[in-house]
Amino acid sequence: MIDLKGKIALVTGAGAGIGRAIAETFARLGARVVAAEIDPARAGDLRAALDAIGGGHSVVVADVRDGAQVRVLLAGVEKQCGRLDILVNNVGDFLGIAKPFDQCTDEDFDNLYAVNLRHIFLVTREAIPLMKKTGPGGSIISVSTIEAFRGIPNGTVYSAFKAGITGFTRSLALELGPHGLRVNAIAPETTETAQVSPEKWILPQYKDLVSKWIPVGRFGEPADCAGAAVFLASELSAWVSGTTIHVDGGALAAGGWYRTRDGRWTNVPVVEDSGLPF
Ligand SMILES: NC(=O)c1ccc[n+]([C@@H]2O[C@H](COP(=O)([O-])OP(=O)(O)OC[C@H]3O[C@@H](n4cnc5c(N)ncnc54)[C@H](O)[C@@H]3O)[C@@H](O)[C@H]2O)c1
């Protein structure tokens, strides 16, 4: 049931982190991957990795915030592959913007919108005709964040656009369900990637506490999200649509509860000088 042979999968922002893990995992499971990546060097690395796996994959250097480039990208998928089964809207970035909402500029609003929500509209709108033509069984997956489901101080605008993915996912699932296409999202907690590095943010004296901060006992790895993406892309999730999988090691459920070094639960923060620089 998790054999993706014969499927064409488009993954955006696949040159690093979560997108790269998804692209490589799909390729290993037999899908033919078309990857879009803005950074030429990362695109080159990914191309080499996908070539090593084999299967006729392609990596396109493209900025998915740009409607014209998105149209060229999807036209290329149709021309080269003739079908599209899986779309992963993975691009997203908090852009290092960590400041009170009332200090955010118009430019911050526009930049965060473009990279966290607007490109999902652009890519998905262009992909739908080809996915409908491909026929029932298609899957659209967008990468949100756990911060769409809880607050994040000084990240209000990022969080708001990511929360927009939840509404997009639910409503589009209704529109596309009758066509046999499913629409879902993945919401990761802190995951070690090019953009987010808990490895760098945690001071050496606290490394032993990492296992206490998240119920499952560690930060995320890109492969954790790849696993959720495989589930949502495959027949295993044939009756799952309009929802979001929290890939968070139980952090949302913990909701502010942590363990101390000796294993007791506490809702009082135990560390002041490490963590996300917000
Ligand atoms: N890493 C985390 O802790 C975390 C947590 C919650 C949500 N997320 C979400 O997961 C997704 C992936 O995050 P990541 O940490 O792997 O990111 P990353 O920055 O490590 O990788 C993203 C890739 O997308 C590429 N990219 C950026 N803008 C692009 C554009 N306009 N067009 C094409 N490619 C573009 C980048 O060059 C990079 O290679 C994002 O949507 C992010 O918001 C990540």
CATH-assigned fold name: Rossmann fold
Q: Which ligands, by name, code or SMILES, are bound?
A: nicotinamide-adenine-dinucleotide
Percent strand = 5-15%
Ends: how far apart? 42 Å
Shape: globular
Radius of gyration: 19 Å
> Could you give a short account of the major beta sheet?
7 strands, parallel
CATH class: Alpha Beta
Catalogue the unreliable spans.
Answer: none
* Domains, number: 1
Explain what this protein looks like in three dimensions.
The protein has one domain (8-196, 218-254): 3-Layer(aba) Sandwich (Rossmann fold), CATH 3.40.50.720. 41% of the residues lie in helices and 14% in strands. The protein is built from 9 helices and 9 strands. The protein has helices at 17-28, 40-53, 67-81, 106-134, 156-176, 198-201, 210-213, 222-233, 251-254, and strands spanning 8-12, 32-37, 58-61, 86-89, 139-143, 182-188, 244-247, 258-259, 265-266. The strands form 2 sheets. The chain has a 7-stranded parallel β-sheet, with helices on both faces. The model has no long low-confidence stretch (mean pLDDT 95). Bound molecules: nicotinamide-adenine-dinucleotide (NAD). Residues 12-13, 15-19, 36-39, 42, 63-65, 90-93, 115, 143, 145, 188, 190-191, 193-196 line the site of nicotinamide-adenine-dinucleotide.
